[in-house]
Design a protein that fits this description.
147 residues; 2 domains; 10% strand; two-stranded antiparallel sheet; Multidrug-efflux Transporter Regulator, Chain: A, Domain 2; DNA-binding; mainly alpha; DNA-binding transcription factor activity; MerR-type_HTH_dom; 3-stranded antiparallel beta sheet
């Protein structure tokens, strides 16, 4: 059920052609539409128009039903969860880009700060330890921005 090209979303197939391409009866497609499993686009007159993506989805529904023995309610839940996963992956990508942009804007990518010998703040590379003070103190303060 992977990714689809923009043309795969174009609603071009009438129900009889979609049924034939999916290897189903047109009445089955109507039932799936009523149940909300596969909802095609509609014309102004109310006619159903199926896209190549819809046909692929119909084939997957048929496979789950016939080969895996999944009920229609189960199929509906599977499709809902797949849509949620797709949406969440997209959101994670957006947030990752936003976070990186913020880090770049502030200039904090991969920087770690520590207290130097005279008490000043110094930048060190991740994984590097700052030099300890020669005044006998064992205190070490490390701060990482954004954590």
């Amino acid at each position: 059920m992977g990714g689809f090209a923009p043309d795969d979303e174009a609603p071009v197939f009438v129900i009889s052609v979609a049924a034939q391409l999916a290897g189903m009866h047109a009445q089955t497609l109507r039932q799936y539409d009523r149940l909300g499993i596969v909802s095609p686009s509609r014309t102004r007159g109310g006619g159903r128009r199926y896209s190549a993506r819809d046909i692929a989805l119909l084939r997957e529904v048929q496979r789950l039903s016939q080969e895996e023995g999944v009920s229609l309610a189960g199929i509906q839940r599977i499709l809902e969860l797949e849509n949620q996963v797709r949406a969440l992956r997209s959101r994670v990508g957006e947030l990752t880009e936003e976070l990186q942009a913020m880090r770049d804007a502030v200039g904090l990518s991969g920087r770690v700060f520590a207290v130097g010998r005279a008490g000043e703040v110094v930048a060190v590379r991740p994984g590097q330890r700052p030099m300890r003070s020669s005044n006998g103190s064992q205190a070490l303060v490390v701060w990482r921005p954004g954590r």
